[in-house]
Design goal:
The complex is a heterodimer.
Chain A (H helix, E strand, L loop, with lengths): L3 E7 L8 H9 L2 E9 L5 E8 L3 H10 L3 E4 L3 E4 L19 E4 L4 E4 L9 H5 L5 E4 L1
Antiparallel strand pairs in A: 1-3, 1-4, 2-3, 5-8, 6-7
Helix pairs in contact in A: 1-2
Chain B lengths: L6 H9 L5 E3 H19 L2 E3 L2 E4 L4 E5 L11 E4 L2 E8 L2 E5 L21 H9 L4 E6 L10 E6 L7 E8 L6 E3 L6 E3 L2 E3 L6 E3 L18 E2 L2 E4 L2 E8 L6 E4 L5 E5 L3 E6 L8 E6 L3 E9 L1 E3 L3 H7 L7 E6 L14 E3 H6 L1 E4 L2 E7 L3 H16 L10 E2 L17
Helix pairs in contact in B: 2-4
Classes of the chains: A alpha+beta, B alpha+beta.
The structure holds iron/sulfur cluster (SF4) (2 copies).
The site of one iron/sulfur cluster has 15 residues of chain A, from loops.
């Protein structure tokens, strides 16, 4: 069975719970953490590769804890021509993939840190952040 | 005796290619090194810039006459209504106008992907725009409907006229509530999750002339990539010097500009259709204002730094929508730009809505225009009211 990539998003209420441990222990899943991040508001985001027989039950468990689970089939790109470096996306991006370089105040996008939560896609006032399938 | 320069003297130097023109950022450094007196003597003009969403924007368009003629009564551009109650083939397209079939906020938070600001950007980019008009027909203007495509170069006049732009200062917006809110200050996360502000601080035009000693009717400016003029003070022009609860001076607030210019000279880089999730559509506008250093007092104001200029912190969950007076304190632009501020004992990440890199670029372009002799300064026909005029906002009372 080949691994499947998923994105998990946690609210501050669950970011301190051992959910990954449970995936391994109770559902016998092979977990490879591709990216993980907890922001100052204690919201967590994580990209995982999961393999195992009880994959669906594992996801069900995650959802029952209040984790938002999405398939990672998409990637986020920035349309450099459209971006005005306004900064409106930067305090919203949970991982700091979109951040301000100081003192120039230029907005940088580091796609390696992006967990495809898509918050920027909706928040960007000039629609410079695009989802690519 | 302290130095006094005139517009004529400065313009003579600009024409001779001898004027010393610097950006507001550069002036700060010069004043730090040489002091106010020498800076006033050595520098002639300081350039400022701002690039941010400016809702009170729009354009007057004259479409020319069709055959047979038509008194256009209702007009749509790419499905966005324009106000046609002016003359037979004139209309005004407002930046925040939305298509009639827009789902608005019924699918909350609405996306507002296309509005009047986007029409203006498409026009200025030279893209074809669909014009639809209807009318009731008259003897002189018999046509009742029309559907065609126009481009900016096809039509007679296109005049950008923005009744309220270049806000002197603005709130730093936060959310004290417990759910995410969608405002014209962007997406604000609950429980002080983030703070948004929207001026270019030490580069922002009206923050650099707090008493309106140089900016007035007829001031020639950078507008949307072309040359424009200050037409009047903007709507809601309530200039004041802010004081915090301890009575400390927190810099200027409240002035605005009404600006006008030929849309045909402008560029889509500096007039950008903009949408705020859950709020609406608008236009981001680039404006740059030159400030002549006529005397030391003007230099002193123009050299204010991000450390000297403050924004009031305002809660947009309760206080702002319900028009409750007061604020949660003042914060300097230096702190705002550092990326975090302290509000009610909590560290809150900050982000701008106004592009500092673009503000810098505007100040640099305007500096080049002036230094190369293409852009002369205009002496205002009349200065705009300053803080001493005591203008302040009237609330709207609902009467039975
Ligand atoms: S919100 Fe959009 S335009 Fe502004 S910096 Fe982010 S990606 Fe660029
Ligand atoms: S999708 Fe956007 S907001 Fe989310 S992590 Fe990626 S860059 Fe940040």
């Amino acid at each position: 069975m080949s691994p499947r990539k998923i994105v998990l998003r946690f609210g501050p209420d669950i970011s301190d719970k051992p959910v990954i441990y449970r995936l391994v222990k109770d559902y016998d899943l092979l977990v490879n953490i591709v990216k993980a991040n907890v922001n100052p508001q204690k919201e967590g985001t994580m990209v995982l590769e999961l393999t195992g027989e009880q994959y669906d039950r594992g996801l069900e468990y995650l959802r029952s804890c209040g984790v938002i689970v999405q398939d990672l089939t998409q990637e986020i790109v920035r349309n450099e021509e459209k971006c005005t470096s306004c900064g409106a996306c930067t305090a919203i991006c949970p991982t700091g993939a979109l951040h301000i370089q100081r003192p120039e105040m230029v907005v940088c996008f580091n796609s390696d840190d992006c967990v495809v939560c898509q918050l920027c896609v909706r928040a960007c006032p000039v629609k410079a952040m695009e989802v690519r399938l | 005796m302290s130095l006094e320069k005139t517009y004529a003297e400065i313009n003579a130097k600009i024409k001779a290619g001898k004027a010393v023109v610097v950006t507001a950022e550069e002036l700060i450094q010069i004043v730090e090194e040489k002091g106010i007196s020498r800076a006033t003597r050595e520098v002639d003009v300081v350039t400022t810039g701002t690039f941010a969403p400016m809702c009170s924007s729009g354009a007057f368009l004259n479409f020319g006459h069709s055959q047979p003629r038509m008194k256009m009564q209702k007009v749509w551009l790419n499905g966005v209504p324009a106000y046609a109650g002016i003359a037979a083939v004139d209309a005004y397209i407002g930046a925040t106008e939305l298509p009639e079939d827009d789902p608005l906020n019924s699918n909350y938070p609405g996306e507002f992907r296309y509005g009047g600001g986007h029409v203006i950007q498409d026009l200025v980019a030279g893209k074809p725009v669909k014009l639809r008009a209807i009318s009731y027909g008259t003897d002189c203007y018999p046509r009742r409907q029309l559907e065609t495509t126009i481009t900016l170069s096809d039509i007679n006049e296109a005049i950008l006229f923005n009744p309220r732009n270049a806000y002197q200062n603005y709130n730093c917006a936060v959310n004290l509530g417990n759910k995410t809110i969608y405002t014209y200050m962007g997406m604000l996360k609950p429980n002080l999750g983030n703070a948004h502000y929207s001026t270019s601080g030490q580069l922002s035009p009206l923050l650099k002339d707090p008493h309106f000693k140089t900016i007035g009717i007829g001031t020639r400016i950078f507008l949307g990539g072309g040359i424009g003029y200050v037409a009047w003070h903007g709507t809601q022009h309530f200039p004041a010097i802010q004081k915090d609860s301890a009575g400390n001076d927190c810099g200027p607030a409240g002035g605005t500009l009404a600006v006008i210019g030929d849309l045909k000279q402008m560029s889509p880089e500096w007039l950008v259709g903009t949408s705020y999730l859950g709020y609406g559509a608008t236009l981001s506008v680039g404006i740059g204002v030159p400030i002549p250093l006529l005397n030391e007092e003007i230099t002193l104001y123009a050299a204010a730094t991000d450390r000297d200029l403050y924004a009031p912190i305002v809660d947009y969950s309760e206080a702002y929508p319900n028009r409750q007076p007061g604020n949660l304190g003042y914060v300097s632009y230096a702190e705002l730009k550092s990326g975090k501020i302290n509000v009610q004992g909590k560290e809150v990440p900050t982000a701008p809505l106004s592009s500092y890199p673009r503000a810098k670029k505007i100040a640099a372009i305007l500096k080049d225009w002036i230094a190369s002799g293409q852009f002369l300064l205009t002496e205002p026909v009349k200065l705009l009211p300053g803080p001493e005029a005591g203008l302040c906002g009237k609330p709207l009372h609902s009467k039975e």
